[in-house]
Design a protein that fits this description.
Layout: H1 15-23, H2 28-36, H3 39-53, H4 69-92, H5 103-109, H6 111-116, H7 124-137, H8 140-151, E1 157-160, E2 176-180, E3 185-189, E4 197-198, E5 209-218, E6 221-231, E7 244-248, E8 261-265, E9 268-271, E10 281-282, E11 288-289, H9 299-330, H10 349-383, H11 391-419, H12 431-440, H13 448-467, H14 494-521, H15 526-532, H16 534-558, H17 564-584, H18 586-592, H19 600-614, H20 618-624, H21 629-632, H22 643-651, H23 664-674
Parallel strand pairs: 1-5, 2-5
Antiparallel strand pairs: 2-3, 3-9, 4-8, 5-6, 7-8, 10-11
Helix pairs in contact: 2-3, 2-20, 7-8, 7-9, 9-10, 9-11, 9-12, 9-20, 10-11, 10-16, 10-17, 10-19, 11-12, 11-13, 11-16, 13-14, 13-16, 14-15, 14-16, 14-17, 14-18, 16-17, 17-19
Length: 677
């Protein structure tokens, strides 16, 4: 490198950051253990992170942003192969067999994976969707044939559902799969351009098998969408199989090493037993046996939505908050009082207003995600016995938590980037990449508006049942008593504010109920009445979700044993998120809850008090997220706070700094300057 000025990294902690940690009023390790689910889980996670992040082969010599599109993919494949070999090594160690850490979750959806392969791994869908689909929808015989090969990476799979012309509306998929009883084969075909499979991760060049979702035809009748296992590339040469058109869809806003692809079929034949038949079946003569419930087909999508809330929403908010909060403690700017030292920007109330709600949101969604994960495991275990009673509620909550959570995460990450000023705009801050990864989830695995409307269908049915006195499920029980909650006087106590969220959600749903019924009575068809009320329905679904998140936060705090110091801080965060969300939807709360206009000043005062009370513990809170520097991947958020030395070091990694004069000077600049224009 022509420029030998690389500032020596300090081995000491930045003084401002050190002083912030001394102010903390609670035990940071206690909160870390609580968020992880126990001391043993914290230890297991740290051990796992050390095992992978200490491997020199998984470190980047050149920052990702300087690689070409082709190089990024090849780089990701190389690291993915090392990564998944190391998974086997980890699992073979005697002391790692307790199952205390979900290694695939950590590497594919969690923070550890984002540290190893910053722009996403092309292997992720193989583990997140291909294998779970075969396990959830394949017979024991099919699982025996495919799962061992898939887990040992003898084959690599993807999940091909979305098409060029259809995404969330999967009943509209155009790919056909027609059964031929004379050969006991299915014939896959892509009849239109819009029927091309589009978006599956790893499909472009990485995978040689796919679970393909297609319209099943047998005995001249269409039976709707079903999953089929299809070989798409030769296992030795990796060339596309006959009749297969396949490729990569091109550069995107982010996630550019996940190798998203397209796929089309020209009369491709597969064996009858390549249809996953745990639920629905096609017999040798073409006779079709229907599944007990069409909803069983949607298990994979529900799983991924649950994983998005648990891993992406919670973790990426926490990552962005850690980077921006530590930077705000180190950065000094302007004069708060003339003649005095420039203050830390975290001392500005406006900066606190940007950062602290993001911290609170991350923790709030963590508690909601824990409920969702537990219910998912309970429901899936009951499905094995044919019990589908809680499936609609799980589906509804997975939809709205995914939709609201990813939208909040995208806003939160953007807010953190803005809180870091110009430095947050740099790719090396890792905030642009974190935003790209986060906002992608607003559209994949169900576009958020459509998901909120799916939740609304469940809510509308539950509201109608509440009118008949039928006993309601856990998340909608408030439909039976939300009006009576309004009679209490408004206070800023947590229970009162949480109650107000139920009042708003119930009232908005009631408004939808009466609007639709009024339209239907006037002669409008129900489907048109639903469409004409859809803006209200989305608002009601979001309000339901936020009411659930707030009350999950309170329920969690009521049911755990924590030190008084930590409990006090978590109460402050619960107050902050409650008042923050209330003020964001103030009109709804004034219309539909026991909040009166004369009470608004108490909300503003509470908000200001929350910011002031959380301020001494801000660094302690983000430290409790316990993210290693390799996971943060940002000079702004490193634990030592040596921001400026790290920024200079990152700048000098640019390939343009490898030589004092770029060749463009001789080729273009010098002739231009000498041309005397």
């Amino acid at each position: 490198m022509f420029n030998n000025f690389l500032p020596k990294m300090k081995s000491t902690i930045n003084e401002d950051l050190k002083n912030e940690r001394l102010k903390c009023t609670f035990n940071v390790e206690e909160l870390t253990n609580f968020l992880d689910g126990g001391t043993s889980k914290t230890e297991a996670r740290r051990k796992l992170e050390t095992f992978f992040l200490s491997d020199a082969r998984l470190k980047d010599d050149i920052p990702m942003e300087y690689l070409s599109h082709k190089e990024r993919y090849e780089h990701a494949v190389r690291k993915s192969c090392i990564l998944f070999k190391k998974i086997t090594e980890w699992q073979e160690q005697d002391d790692n067999t307790g199952g205390s850490v979900d290694i695939y979750q950590a590497l594919l959806g969690g923070l550890l994976g984002s540290a190893v392969i910053k722009d996403g791994t092309p292997f992720s869908v193989h583990y997140v969707m291909f294998i779970p689909t075969i396990m959830g929808q394949g017979t024991l015989e099919q699982q025996g044939k495919w799962i061992s090969r898939a887990f040992s990476n003898q084959i690599l799979g993807t999940y091909a559902q979305t098409e060029l012309g259809h995404g969330t509306f999967i009943r509209g998929l155009e790919t056909t799969c027609t059964y031929d009883p004379s050969t006991e084969e299915f014939v896959l075909n892509s009849p239109t351009l819009t029927s091309y499979k589009w978006w599956p991760g790893g499909l472009g060049h990485t995978c040689n098998y796919a679970v393909v979702v297609a319209q099943l035809y047998t005995q001249g009748k269409c039976h709707g969408i079903h999953p089929f296992i299809v070989q798409i590339r030769d296992e030795e040469t990796w060339m596309p199989m006959p009749g297969i058109k396949i490729g990569e869809i091109g550069s995107k806003f982010g996630m550019n090493s996940t190798n998203n692809g397209y796929l089309a079929f020209d009369q491709v034949r597969i064996p009858r037993m390549n249809m996953l038949m745990k639920n629905a079946k096609v017999f040798k003569d073409g006779t079709y046996q229907k599944s007990l419930s069409d909803k069983l087909t949607y298990g994979t999508m529900i799983f991924v939505r649950v994983a998005i809330v648990r891993d992406l929403v919670v973790n990426y908010l926490a990552k962005a908050a850690t980077i921006a909060t530590r930077y705000s403690a180190v950065r000094r700017q302007s004069e708060l009082k003339p003649g005095e030292r420039e203050p830390q920007i975290i001392d500005y109330q406006t900066q606190q207003f940007k950062l602290f709600p993001v911290i609170a949101t991350s923790i709030a969604f963590r508690f909601a995600a824990t409920w969702l994960w537990n219910v998912y495991n309970d429901v899936t275990s009951r499905l094995e016995q044919g019990d589908m009673e809680r499936l609609p509620e799980l589906h509804a909550m997975a939809c709205c938590l995914k939709a609201v959570g990813t939208a909040d995460a995208a806003i939160g990450v953007t807010t953190c980037r803005l809180a870091c000023g110009g430095h947050g705009y740099m790719n090396n801050s890792n905030l642009p990449n974190t935003y790209a990864m986060t906002t992608a989830a607003e559209t994949y695995e169900g576009e958020n508006t459509v998901l909120l409307l799916q939740t609304a269908r469940f809510l509308m049915k539950a509201f109608q049942e509440s009118k008949t006195g039928k006993e309601l499920t856990e998340t909608v029980k408030y439909f039976s008593n939300f009006k009576s909650l309004r009679r209490a006087n408004w206070t800023t106590e947590l229970n009162c504010m949480a109650s107000a969220f139920y009042q708003v959600a119930g009232s908005l749903m009631e408004k939808c109920y009466f609007s639709i019924n009024l339209l239907v009575k006037s002669g409008v068809q129900y489907e048109d009445a639903w469409n004409q009320t859809s803006i209200q329905l989305i608002k009601a679904s979001e309000a339901h979700c936020r009411a659930f998140v707030i009350n999950s936060f309170l329920a969690t705090l009521e049911n755990v044993q924590l030190s008084p110091e930590l409990k006090a801080v978590l109460d402050q965060l619960a107050q902050l998120i409650s008042v923050h969300w209330t003020l964001n939807k103030l009109g709804d709360f004034l219309l539909f809850s026991n909040l009166k206009s004369c009470d608004v000043s108490t909300l503003n005062s509470l908000l200001e008090n929350c910011l002031m009370n959380i301020r001494p513990n801000a660094i302690g809170l983000v430290d409790s997220f316990d993210m290693r520097d390799e996971i943060l991947g940002s000079p702004l958020g490193a634990y030592d706070g040596n921001v400026y030395e790290r920024l200079i070091n990152e700048a000098n990694k640019s390939p343009l700094n490898k030589e004092p004069v770029n060749e463009s000077f001789q080729k273009y600049l010098k002739p231009f300057i000498k041309s005397n224009m």
